[in-house]
């Protein structure tokens, strides 16, 4: 009986933890609207020298934002992107990637 209670409790805690770390598309949309829309546009198609995000999957967006956050040189717009990504948490990046990869297909 004790083992069953421990297993159920452990499973419930694992489920709660997974949900706490799940991507929040609406939070990603809010962040995108506050910061990203000015260069990448409301539909993510890019403007001028700012690339389109349309069709990019979550892994690609995550990798790029992590590179910018780390200060890695990714391309011509690194100098513009790095300051925006510098303070992003892993959760922020996951939320942005979830929003971009679901809304801009």
Explain what the structure shows.
The protein has a single domain, classed as Cytochrome c-like domain (Cytochrome Bc1 Complex, Chain D, domain 2). It has 105 residues and is mainly α. It has five helices and no strands. Helix content is 67%, strand content 0%. The protein starts with a helix and ends with a helix. α2 (25-40) crosses α5 (90-103) and α3 (58-70) packs antiparallel against α5.
Give a nutshell description of this structure.
With 105 residues, the protein is an all-alpha fold.
User: In percent, how much strand structure appears in the residues?
Assistant: under 5%
The CATH class is Mainly Alpha
Give the class from helix and strand content and strand pairing.
Answer: mainly alpha
Principal-axes geometry comes out as globular
Oligomer kind: single chain
Q: What is the CATH H-level superfamily?
A: Cytochrome c-like domain
Low-confidence stretches are: 5-20
- Total number of strands: 0
The CATH architecture comes to Orthogonal Bundle
The string of secondary-structure elements, in order, is HHHHH
How many domains make up the 3D coordinates? 1
The biggest beta sheet is recorded as: none
CATH fold name: Cytochrome Bc1 Complex, Chain D, domain 2
Mean pLDDT across all amino acids:
86
Write the layout of secondary structure elements.
Layout: H1 2-20, H2 25-40, H3 58-70, H4 78-85, H5 90-103
Helix pairs in contact: 2-5, 3-4, 3-5
Which tags fit this structure?
mainly alpha; Cytochrome Bc1 Complex, Chain D, domain 2; 105 residues; 67% helix; single chain
């Amino acid at each position: 009986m004790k083992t069953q209670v421990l297993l159920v409790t452990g499973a419930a805690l694992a489920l709660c933890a997974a949900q706490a770390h799940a991507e929040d598309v609406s939070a990603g949309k809010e962040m995108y609207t506050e910061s990203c829309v000015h260069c990448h546009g409301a539909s993510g198609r890019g403007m001028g020298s700012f690339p389109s995000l349309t069709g990019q999957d979550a892994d690609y967006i995550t990798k790029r934002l992590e590179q910018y956050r780390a200060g890695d040189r990714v391309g011509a717009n690194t100098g513009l992107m790095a300051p925006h990504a510098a303070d992003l948490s892993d959760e922020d990046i996951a939320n942005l990637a979830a929003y971009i990869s679901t809304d801009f297909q």
